[in-house]
Specification:
Helix content: over 70%
Strand content: under 5%
Distance between the termini: 105 Å
Shape: flat
Structural class: mainly alpha
Largest sheet: none
Radius of gyration: 31 Å
């Protein structure tokens, strides 16, 4: 039995050696190709990581520049030159990263905040809208929706603001981080427009979700402010 087994093993080994001998060049080529592919993948990963690090470093630098910029007198020549340099750096990072990546989105967010601080509300709204569209259902997108709504309130366009606040509630739900503020803003705008019934309904929903303990709501300052509005309606 052992002799038969050894004979079979010998035949298999002979066939294997014969195969390798006949195809040694092809086997060597495949091995080299695999090594090249592995090296290429490693290089690609390093390049991607380096690119990511570079973008985040640029974002961190841009944030520092923004803080320095807003500390300046906005009427000074230094502010004008620093603002121009800041905007150029931000636009460069946006072009490099894109708005779907956080560094690019944050760069445009800083541009939006700068425009808002300069009371250029339409420019700020446009920036916020672009970020929200690119970021999908993320925290940053919802924040930009809220900020865009505030821009339109400053522009006197209450209907545009209402749509954005309602979008935040509809998209992110009652558990969304900005839901209480968005709902309060909706009620506040209705109240300012003289739509008492709509305002009262919104405030009651808000207090029911975020003020009444038995409903499982998490207390919110906006629910407490809504409660104050409801007291006025009761009078």
């Amino acid at each position: 039995m052992d002799l038969e087994k050894n004979t079979k093993n010998g035949k298999v080994e002979d066939k294997l050696n014969s195969f390798i001998g006949r195809n040694s060049k092809a086997i060597l080529a495949i091995g080299i190709a695999l090594v090249v592919i592995i090296i290429a993948l490693c290089v690609a990963l390093v390049v991607v990581q380096d690119s990511t690090n570079r973008k985040f470093d640029a974002m961190a630098s841009l944030e520092k520049d923004y803080q320095s910029l807003i500390a300046l007198d906005s009427s000074s020549d230094e502010y004008a030159s620093s603002s121009a340099a800041f905007q150029q750096a931000a636009e460069s990072l946006i072009a490099d990263s894109g708005l779907d990546e956080y560094p690019g989105a944050k760069a445009m967010y800083l541009l939006a905040d700068l425009a808002y601080g300069e009371q250029d509300y339409q420019a700020a709204a446009d920036y916020y809208a672009q970020i929200a569209a690119a970021q999908g259902a993320t925290y940053l997108a919802s924040l930009c929706n809220m900020n865009e709504a505030a821009c339109y309130e400053n522009l006197g366009d209450q209907e545009a603001a209402l749509q954005l606040y309602r979008h935040v509630v509809d998209t992110y739900g009652d558990s969304g981080v900005f839901a209480p503020k968005a709902m309060f803003s909706i009620g506040r705008i209705y109240d300012a427009q003289g739509n008492a019934d709509l305002a009262q309904a919104e405030f009651e929903t808000l207090t029911g979700l975020y003020l009444v303990p038995e409903n499982g709501g998490t207390p919110s300052e906006y629910a407490r402010m809504a409660e104050a509005y409801l007291i006025n309606y009761a009078d």
